[in-house]
DUF397 domain-containing protein (Kitasatospora herbaricolor), 71 residues
Amino acid sequence: MTNLDLDAAAWRKSSYSGDNGGECIEVAPGFPGLVPVRDSKDPSGPALVFPAAAWLAFVEGVRAGDFPTDC
């Protein structure tokens, strides 16, 4: 995979992120077949890039309650 230029990405906060200022992620649409994800508290930090199908499976698992949310 080649490196993606995420400098101009239009990041948006995930609707599943908490409102308390912690545990927030952002995703960047506009990368066909890929979903860049980053920590909103560290926007200049690294981003992870997932295949779109893997990200969709993860989101569906979250919606279905497959992952514990109490830490």
